Amino acid sequence: xxxxxxxxxxxxxDIRARLHMKAPGxxxxxxxxxSRAVERGSIFVAIRGTAxxxxxxxxxxxxxxx
Length: 66
Description:
Layout: E1 3-4, H1 5-10, E2 27-28, E3 30-32, E4 42-44, H2 58-62
Parallel strand pairs: 3-4
Antiparallel strand pairs: 1-2
């Protein structure tokens, strides 16, 4: 299922989102909490856990893949 980024964010009203986008009309194909699994069309959700703070991996998630 593919939805627009705007629709994905509208479905998550309680989440503060920081967008790193180059294309305002982007489509969302996947939502992940694993920065290593981010691909084109993914949304990375950084969760602050008790053992690991997912915000540490934001730079990894937005880094271009080879």
